[in-house]
Amino acid sequence: MPERLNARVEACYQQSEAFFKQRFERPQVSFRLRGQKAGVAHLQENLLRFNPQLYRENSEHFLRQTVAHEVAHLIAHRVFGPHIQPHGAEWRLIMQGVYELPPERCHSYAITRRQRTLYLYRCACTERDFPFTARRHALVRKGRRYLCRSCRTTLVFTGQQRVE
């Protein structure tokens, strides 16, 4: 899987070098991105992160559009400096003028949401449940307290969970 994506990153860099007539340092490429984002360019670190799940499910479009989109961020940063808008004129110039691709800001890949467990908390003043994420529940177990906005008493875990 990474071979084709790395080859596409290299091809985008070669196109950019031919267009701007200068050499660009190659970025580190990572496949450690989850969630809704298809890719992220870390400008200061010269790092590209890609979502392997979205790549597997949309490989052709991902290689053509998403990889170029993220590389264009790094190239725009190197050529035009740090004070440009993320999807501004400079980035659009690279997408259209260098890669001959539409300057689409967002992908439209279908995203499958993972099931998540919510931990139900309650307050003494109401019968209403307060669903906590696993992260917030873990913080409570480490000693953090969350208060009811109405009566200011500590919310207490009911022992119940809900899967969404």
From TrEMBL:
Single GO BP term: proteolysis
Cited Pfam families: SprT-like (PF10263)
This protein's name: SprT family zinc-dependent metalloprotease
GO molecular function, one term: metallopeptidase activity
PANTHER family: PROTEIN SPRT
Keywords annotated in UniProt: Hydrolase, Metalloprotease, Protease
Sequence ranges assigned to domain SprT-like in this UniProt record: 7-158
